Amino acid sequence: MLKVSFSDRAIPAKGTLVLSVFDGAVLGEKGNELNSEANGLLVDFMARREFTGSAGSMQTITKPAGLDYEELILVGFGKAEKLTALSVEEAGGRTFARLCDLGITDAAMVLELPDGAALDADEVAARFGSGAVLRDYRFDKYKTDHGVKKDGDDSKSKKAKDDKRLKKLKIITSSAAKAKKAFADYEAVANGVHIARDLVSEPANELYPVSYAKRVKELESLGLEVEILDQKELEKKGMKALLSVGHGSERDSALVVMIYRGAETGKSGSKAKGKGKGKNAEFTTPPVAFIGKGITFDTGGISLKPAAGMGDMKWDMGGSASVVGAMAALAGRKAKVNAVGVIALAENMPSGRATRPGDIIGSLSGQTIEVLNTDAEGRLVLADALWYTEDRFKPQFMIDLATLTGAIIVALGKEFAGMFADDDTLAEQLTAAGKQVGDKVWRMPLDPAYDKMLETDGADMKNIGGRDAGSATAAHFLKRFVRDVPWVHLDIAGMAWSGKTTPFTPKGGTGYGVRLLDQLVRDNYEK
Predict the structure, then answer these.
(1) Which of 178, 193, 272, 521 is deepest in the core (most CB within 10 A)?
(2) 209 within 8 A of 332, measured Cβ to Cβ
């Protein structure tokens, strides 16, 4: 990961330098000093290029006359009074990308704020570094330097070329000590985002329920407690809905529980293990709870999907990756909250043992389900996970995340996750958090009419409600497995994977939801 440092000392005289510019081509004190050294070059350059310092703008001056820099990069931040944490992070991400495009591995950034800035200097510096670290992601573990080259081809391999990425970024600010402290938190969250992106990007032959569970177990090094409920334990507990999804696969299903005790303190103020003794003891303060759908590959089962695009179904576990990343983020920044993350893992495959359309299955809750479409499987694994989480932990609230329906993409495209909430306060908190970090949500309706569409003669419910309102009926299906706690369902089918690059998200797995959940906790649920 990119190494970001902070300094309040003099700016370097050589190498690559990045300068902040605000609306109206406003330079800071150090920027103006450099402009004087270069006989007005910077101001003249901005005037010729009509560079005003608007948000999202950038200009590069190669070997500026009168200065010893190889590259001098001007980054526009827009109006100082309208600065937001998100706009600053986007500037950091864009700057990282530009430096990588230029093959620069070491750079310094001078961040100077004019009067009236909406954010403090330390926050701007820390957020700029956060955006750069978020953009510093690639998934290339399966790329090699092997391959056939034509005679006379001396070109470097793609992997070697990719090594020319920015590795060190020094941010020069008047509040270096405070910026460094704030950045440590944001870096931990960025690490959680990267963990989620890695999981979503893994191919299904490498990431399947058992191997996935082992990957999560490794996060105990961050301070999480991780329990793995294997196939036999799921059978013993009666998680028939979850197990039904994996019947057709040769790979066992699993449920993984992550526990973080950031709000547990003993009488002396030291961390305690709850009311009981030892690992996984009862909480003294009810936790917040996140539940994720983890279908490591989804063929649709007997209700087989079309071949075109089926390879994308390796990321049908995107909701679970968000939960894992969020739990890693909370533990990594030592958030003062109790939290649990529960992910339901299965592989949906067709075989002679697979669940068939028309089968009636049980569930941990005791309710029965008529399965009319085996490609509506995510709601089945979540049904047992939701019931288990509420029954065991009695949390303050539950939020589930799932790449649940294609219908939500039809409704909202790839700009918003669909949010179905039975609690107005929690919905408003999530909406506000999403706006702050760019993980946008849009509230969708819950209504008894949608619930009625799940009624069937042969069982307590069916797993699909028909073609109309597919996302809403799916949400109501999940609602039947929630009892007495506030609950939100986030359908992130359009958000877990992106075919385009954003300021701080490369193409591929996005890590959507990690920053959303972290910000929700940060704003509302920490001690």
Answers:
(1) 193
(2) no
Q: Which residue bears the tokens 């890693």?
A: 328
CB-facing half-sphere around the CA of 223: CA atoms within 13 A: 22
Annotation marks residue 240 as catalytic: no
Residue in 135, 379, 479, 480 annotated catalytic: 379
SS3 call for 93: helix
8 A C-beta contact, residue 512 and residue 441 = no
Identify the bridge partners of residue 502 per DSSP, sorted by sequence position.
505
List 305, 394, 414, 440, catalytic entry: 305
First to last CA, the chain: 30
Strands 69-76 and 3-7: unpaired
Residues of the chain with pLDDT under 50: 266-270, 272, 274-278
Is-contact 448 470, C-beta < 8 A?
Answer: no
Tell me, what's the pLDDT at 267?
A: 36
1-60 pLDDT, tens per residue? 799 999 999 999 999 999 999 999 999 999 999 999 999 999 999 999 999 999 999 999
For this structure, is 49 an active site residue? no
CA distance 235 to 421: 31
